[in-house]
Write a structure and sequence with these properties.
Layout lengths: L2 H28 L2 H16 L5 H15 L2 H32 L1
Helix pairs in contact: 1-2, 1-4, 2-3, 3-4
């Protein structure tokens, strides 16, 4: 894969997960379980492409909670997500920066 394509993929992942986190928070406020399950599932698939473990795990908890309409699981998953997403995002941003410097 070319460097430029890699940069595009990582930037796309960051942007899509950031948007998903926002959408998940809004869906949780509305108790929109279908939107929670769908959005978490899509974001989890994106996160799995980059070998992260904590991020897809948190998204999986939200997804399963949404499918079961389990408010407690959703809250747990969102709490986990708010812990792991900032660190994951920072690591991805560092990877972008490091790879750009190495060019």
């Amino acid at each position: 894969m070319s460097d430029e394509r890699w940069f595009e993929l990582v930037r796309s992942l960051i942007d899509s997960v950031a948007e998903a986190v926002h959408q998940l928070a809004e869906a949780a406020e509305r108790d929109d379980f279908a939107a929670l399950a769908r959005t978490a599932h899509e974001a989890r698939n994106d996160a799995l492409m980059f070998g992260s473990e904590a991020l897809p795990s948190a998204l999986g908890v939200v997804e399963r909670g949404g499918r079961r309409a389990d408010g407690e699981a959703i809250r747990d998953g969102l709490a986990e997500l708010t812990e792991v997403w900032p660190a994951t995002r920072a690591a991805l941003e560092r990877a972008l920066s490091d790879r750009r410097r190495a060019q």
